[in-house]
Amino acid sequence: MENIKLPLDSNLNPIGVLQPGKQYYIEGSGDSVELPEAGVYMLSVENGKVIQIDYPDGTDSRLVLATGTIISFYFPAGTTVSVGDEDLQLNINKMR
Q: Could you give the strand order of the β-sheet that contains 80-83, starting from the edge strand earlier in sequence?
């Protein structure tokens, strides 16, 4: 099998491969995070199932996900992710 060489970025990661960056955490009732920059974010649900997402243009969404779900989304800067049910525990990683 041929050894394929991929071009590397300045951090020596293969170009085109997303790497975890800044991490945010939501835990429990009333907790929320405003995402400061646009980009791809990976959501990892530790507990709970309802995530409230408020976009900067005034629209909103509610996601219903099972515990253990890992999913990625593109969010614009200023998007707020918050608790949709009292038991939510959620990791949010900005991918770079």
A: 32-34, 80-83, 50-54, 60-64
- Over residues 36-81, the pLDDT tens digits come to 999 999 999 888 888 999 999 999 999 888 888 888 899 999 999 9
In terms of DSSP bridges, do strands 89-95 and 80-83 run parallel, antiparallel, or are they unpaired? Answer: unpaired
What pTM value is reported for the model? 0.79
Extract the tokens encoding 15: 């170009």
Unique residue bearing structure tokens 């530790």? 46
CA angle in degrees (0–180, nearest 5) for 60-62-63: 135
- ∠ CA(23), CA(53), CA(35), 5° rounding? 35
